[in-house]
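TASK: fixed-backbone design
INPUT:
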């Protein structure tokens, strides 16, 4: 049977999983989907994917692809997967692609981070947003955001264990939006280092609280030293929003 290359777009709540990537003896989103693909297609299928989200991180549109010989069309595959996946993982679409399509070769990725900025916790945002019960200086945060834009060495914002060949990345856009008592910070870049968004968000919040000033961001970047920057924001406030290939 001729091989087909299928692109899938996956949305998931990451709370119950140790991240996207398969790990031994731990539940992961990739692992759950691959086990189901084996059940459906009766062969071992390894997913390629656009982004390796950490434990507790969520995704609106994670992109992955796999090749197999299949007698089913895209709609049939979509129905078979979604009727058997757990409720916190949904396949939004299945699309047959050229055989050389590889979801790892994204041009841009967009993440956003949710901050619940209120004196009182909201139980409906449990594991969905970072509760920050402090006054935040939004103007100082906006000044800090501008300093992260562009092509820079982000080594000071990479957590240990990152295996990137280079720590230089280009952030095309960062923007801050306020929705009532929620602050969202959006990031679009050509790629991200390990926990880079969470480390930048933690630093921006530290600046909003007055622990640092926006002018200190330049010193942090130049230091290439993780210990010189701010805290790491918790995983549960982070969402992979979109992956682009053009």
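OUTPUT:
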């Amino acid at each position: 049977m001729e091989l087909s290359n299928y692109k899938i777009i996956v949305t998931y709540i990451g709370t119950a999983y140790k991240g996207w990537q398969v790990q031994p003896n731990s539940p992961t989103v990739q692992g759950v989907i691959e086990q189901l693909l084996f059940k459906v297609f009766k062969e071992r299928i390894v997913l390629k994917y656009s982004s390796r989200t950490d434990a507790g991180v969520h995704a609106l549109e994670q992109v992955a692809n796999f090749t197999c010989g299949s007698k089913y069309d895209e709609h049939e595959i979509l129905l078979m997967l979604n009727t058997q996946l757990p409720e916190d993982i949904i396949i939004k679409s299945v699309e047959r692609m050229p055989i050389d399509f590889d979801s790892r070769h994204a041009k841009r990725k967009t993440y956003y981070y949710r901050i619940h900025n209120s004196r009182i916790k909201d139980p409906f945002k449990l594991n969905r947003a970072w509760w920050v019960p402090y006054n935040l200086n939004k103007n100082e945060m906006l000044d800090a955001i501008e300093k992260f834009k562009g092509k820079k060495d982000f080594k000071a914002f990479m957590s240990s264990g990152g295996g990137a060949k280079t720590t230089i990345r280009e952030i095309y856009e960062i923007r801050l939006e306020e929705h009532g008592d929620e602050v969202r910070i959006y990031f679009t870049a050509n790629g991200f280092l390990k926990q880079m968004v969470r480390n930048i968000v933690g630093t921006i919040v530290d600046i909003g609280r007055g622990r640092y000033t926006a002018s200190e961001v330049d010193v942090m970047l130049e230091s290439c030293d993780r210990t010189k920057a701010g805290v790491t924001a918790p995983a549960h406030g982070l969402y992979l929003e979109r992956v682009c290939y053009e």
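COMMENT: The CA atoms of residues 171 and 189 lie 4 Å apart.
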